[in-house]
Amino acid sequence: MKDLKGKVALITGGTKGIGYGVAEALLNQGLKVVITSRDKNAANSAAEVLGTKTDSVGSVIGVQADVRQLKSQQEAVGQALSTFGQLDIVIANAGLGHFASIEDLTSEQWSDTIDTNLTGVFNSIKASVTELKKSKGYYITISSLAGANFFAGGSAYNASKFGVTGFTQAVMLDLRKYGVKVSTIMPGSVSTHFNGNTPSDEQAWKIQIEDIGELVIDLLKMNPRTLPSKIEVRPTMPPSK
């Protein structure tokens, strides 16, 4: 997609963190953006702030949607089409984390993690695949280095992100014959509010949300003949342990 202006992107979990950073980057490139959240007020508020911040009022809307439900994702896609007339890019970003030893991890925490992080990605792609085949669009899923590196207390999160990584690569092979690109980004430590973290100046060493936004733009602008299907991203200089 050499010329991004006027393209339409849907970003799940776009009200904060990585999703918000990607939304801002896309708006600054002249795209139209739909951000989703389970919280209607959060979606509308974030869209309003983004529109003002990027001088893109009217080019961004907030939609209440739950990635755990296919019907909800289909409705979000429908709102993108009714508002902007097309859909070219889907960023499957929504996610959460429950971290505990298998001895303490509850079945509810397991289900919440898998349903949001993995089934949510399936639903986001399934709901929009017809439209992205029409537009020869681009799917980008947000996995994690936890999708390649396991750790104690991470059974649910590791399972979900290993799943996202593998799922995305298989979907890439399914869809490239239609001219649809599919990539997964696997960040390490990112300065967001994920898992109760509070971003601060002391965390300037971490990947910043605007860095992921810049990476997404680079992917979208890459020559159509080339596809970086899986990208691991790390802080350059993490603190010594």
TrEMBL record:
SUPFAM superfamilies in the record: NAD(P)-binding Rossmann-fold domains
Pfam families in the record: adh_short
Membrane-crossing residue ranges in chain numbering: none
InterPro entries: KR_dom, NAD(P)-bd_dom_sf, Sc_DH/Rdtase_CS, SDR, SDR_fam
Ketoreductase domain: residues covered: 7-194
PANTHER family per the UniProt record, alphabetical: 3-OXOACYL-(ACYL-CARRIER-PROTEIN) REDUCTASE (PTHR42879), 3-OXOACYL-[ACYL-CARRIER-PROTEIN] REDUCTASE FABG (PTHR42879:SF2)
Family assignment from sequence similarity: Belongs to the short-chain dehydrogenases/reductases (SDR) family.
Protein name, UniProt field: NADP-dependent 3-hydroxy acid dehydrogenase YdfG
